[in-house]
Amino acid sequence: MFPFLFSFQNSVIVILIFLLTIKLYLEITKGVCKSTKRLDGKTIIITGANTGIGKETALDLASRGGRIILACRDLKKASVAKDDIGQKSGNYNVLVKKLDLASLASVRQFAEDILKNEPKLHILINNAGCGGIKQQYTQDGLENQMQSNHFGHFLLTNLLLGLMIRTAEKEQENARIINVSSDANHLCRSLNFEDLNFVRDRTAGTFLAPYKIYGTSKLCNILFSIELANKLELHGRAVTVNSLHPGAVYTEFGRFSSIVSTIMTILVSFLKTPKEGAQTTIYLAVADEVANVTAQYFRDCKIAKPSKLAQDSGMAKKLWDVSETLVRLESYEKFF
């Protein structure tokens, strides 16, 4: 009995030491944006900014004097977030505008509003996203996660690109596009451009489908960033495009899936807070040292390597062409 007890106690101690080591490593390697740069006179759009890392990003950039536009689907929650950001930052130059990425019509209406009422746009942060939700299709006939995470942002960015280029050229300072991706891009082992809606995928209709689709959408975020950056450089335009992994963050993201929510609850001690998760986004938005950096993937405020698939420029170009078709990008909406 005593040898067993001793062995059990030792096992517990070893496990605790292992867990504490992981926790210490995660704490040490967390990226922190140390830039004190002000954003007075700058206009910033952040999608999905009423909660989580999007809200924390908005709060930080508002504290730097920026004009913040919260692009959100839920106007009630966004209004509450706006008031909270204003009170905490002391900057009440915060606006709320309706944007439902799962509706291409909503994306076009939002962009039309921006182009009509905003003379400048310096930073676009494509932050909104969902994950782990049941496979379903939008009114546009696109898979919901794919549209919310990739296609919607693809269309939005294209529609606002001209305004960002004009802003950058007029002020002689690079505008910045930041796409929030995830290391979940490693979950995607291949891309079937004939079935980006996962109608015929072997996981379709199974419990695995939502997670494969999420990984695919995050891969698309990176490939989209690479191709857009390449196109902008080719045309000599003063706009940078980068993507990032925010880390494993404890947010309301778990609301999309009971499985994800349960896992996040169990691992909460090892997850970043929303403020910590927002650091790399903030870094890419303000740091002078990345003002001319483009087509890169960041993690913890440093350049990192995504999956091998995410580094394939040929695949990035193909995704662009297919995405143009699926969002029905009109000739007058194209910059390139």
Which key features would you list for this structure?
about 45% helix, alpha/beta, 8 strands, about 325 residues, eight-stranded mixed sheet, about 10% strand, globular
Describe the structure.
This protein has 336 residues and is α/β, with parallel strands linked by helices. Helix content is 47%, strand content 12%. The chain is built from ten helices and eight strands. β1, α2 and β2 form a beta-alpha-beta unit. It is globular, with a radius of gyration of 21 Å. It starts with a helix and ends in a 10-residue tail after the last helix. The N terminus is likely disordered.
Write the layout of secondary structure elements.
Elements: H1 2-29, E1 43-47, H2 52-63, E2 67-72, H3 75-89, E3 94-98, H4 104-117, E4 123-126, H5 144-171, E5 175-180, H6 209-234, E6 239-245, H7 258-266, H8 274-277, H9 279-286, E7 297-299, E8 302-304, H10 313-326
Parallel strand pairs: 1-2, 1-4, 2-3, 4-5, 5-6, 6-7
Antiparallel strand pairs: 7-8
Helix pairs in contact: 2-3, 4-5, 5-6, 6-10
Question: Could you provide a short overview of the structure?
Answer:
The chain has 336 residues and is of the alpha/beta class.
Low-pLDDT runs of 5+ residues are: 1-5
Order of helices and strands: HEHEHEHEHEHEHHHEEH
Q: Quickly give the structural class.
A: alpha/beta
Largest sheet: 8 strands, mixed
Per the principal axes of the C-alpha atoms, what is the gross shape? globular
The count of strands amounts to 8
Mean pLDDT: 90
Percent helix range: 40-55%
Number of helices: 10
Q: CA-to-CA gap between the ends?
A: 75 Å
Residues in β-strands, percent: 5-15%
Tell me the Rg in angstroms: 21 Å
